[in-house]
Amino acid sequence: MATLVQAIRLALHVGEERLGVTDIFGEDVGPPLGGVFTQSQGLRTAWNTPLDERGIVGTAIGLALAGQRPVAEIQFCDYAFNTIDLLKLAGGISWSSAGEFDCPMVLMTPVGSGIRGSIYHSHSFDAQATRVPGWKIVVPSNPLDAYGLMLSAIADPNPVMFLAPKALMRAKAAVGERIPGEPDDERALSRMIDAPLGDRSRWRPEWPDVADHFVPIGKARVCREGRAVTVVTYGRMVPVALQATAQLEGEGIDAEVIDLRSLWPFDWDAVKTSVRKTNRVLFLNEDTEVTNFGEHLLRRTIEELFYELHAPPKLLAGAHVPGIGLADALERASVPQVEGIVDALRDLVRHEP
Q1: SS3 130
Q2: Could you say which of 60, 156, 250, 265 would form a disulfide bridge with 218 (CB–CB 3.0 to 4.6 Å)?
Q3: Which CATH number goes with the domain that contains 290?
Q4: What percent of the chain has pLDDT over 90?
Q5: For residues 335 and 113, is the Cβ–Cβ distance under 8 A?
Q6: What is the phi/psi pair of residue 133, to 5°?
């Protein structure tokens, strides 16, 4: 079973060979490292850039406007904040040209905490990304979705941000969620596409013949069905939410878990259908709670579903602090944990309408 980072690498290879990707670049993206998380090892079009996030984004825009199809990487999303004006420029190209010019670029960047990255490598970029009109925003929570969302991002004629949860990079696919065409033996896949330690100068990957699998951008997934309460989440918080809801199952609380997969466009129909069924909802993510994307979902829920709610909708998100500490206790206190999710869901279920 592929890990999430192997799924990204396989999708980028398919992008090179079948979808017209011309350049994959960023800091340490090319050989010999192949990316901090190894997501670009062995890729034919991968090359290294200087340590210059604005230069990376600007180069991607220029290549896209020149008819190329680049995939650019910001090594950690913590360093994407100084590119906001360029992101706005890329997002506005099609609109400002009345559709005459497209900007077919993918910007991938790891997001969130969970790797003990401390204050410079633990930020989220979710809400900030959704504040830049003209971009599509995808956040996978598992390897199969990472593969399918990356293929859809590459094929899109306009800019897509691919936000990969740092803490899930080594997460393996669940049973039955294999990438079509990947080897049955996960060790065989590793031998084929994972570069060895040490000297890599003679190493070349042996790419498996994986099939196309496109996950539509803007289509959510019901990870767990339930009738008592809805959890709407994405990215790293999906497996955490599933842990919490499994724990509550023993108490007779049947919770539904929705994985948005895309923050823009987002699948409002899936959210609305679930909330109308359960009449209670928790919006969950690890970005800071002030001006959080979950607040937008909560506001829309109140506006459109107010009279169908049996409890006030809740947002459980990261603490509004300047950074996340290195110590385990500080990191855990800064972003939602299973225990807090369980408590929030209990409160929602126990609330009398």
Answers
A1: helix
A2: 265
A3: 3.40.50.920
A4: 90
A5: yes
A6: -60, 150
- pLDDT (tens digit per residue) in 167-204: 999 998 876 789 999 998 889 999 999 999 888 888 99
Backbone angles phi, psi at 272, to 5 degrees: -60, -45
Query: How many C-beta neighbours within 10 Å does residue 71 have?
Result: 30
In a domain, 33, yes or no: yes
Which residue do the tokens 């909802």 mark? 281
User: Do residues 60 and 94 make contact, with C-beta atoms less than 8 angstroms apart?
Assistant: no
Q: How many domains does the chain have?
A: 2
The pLDDT, as a whole number, for residue 323 is: 85
Which is the catalytic residue, given 121, 213, 296, 310? 121
Instruction: State the DSSP H helix or E strand holding residue 318, giving kind and residue range, or none if neither.
Output: strand 314-318
> Could you give the CA distance from residue 66 to residue 69 in angstroms, rounded to a whole number?
9
The three-state secondary structure class of 332 is helix
Q: Does 310 participate in catalysis according to the annotation?
A: no
Helix H or strand E segment including 347: helix 338-350
Is-contact 163 125, C-beta < 8 A?
yes
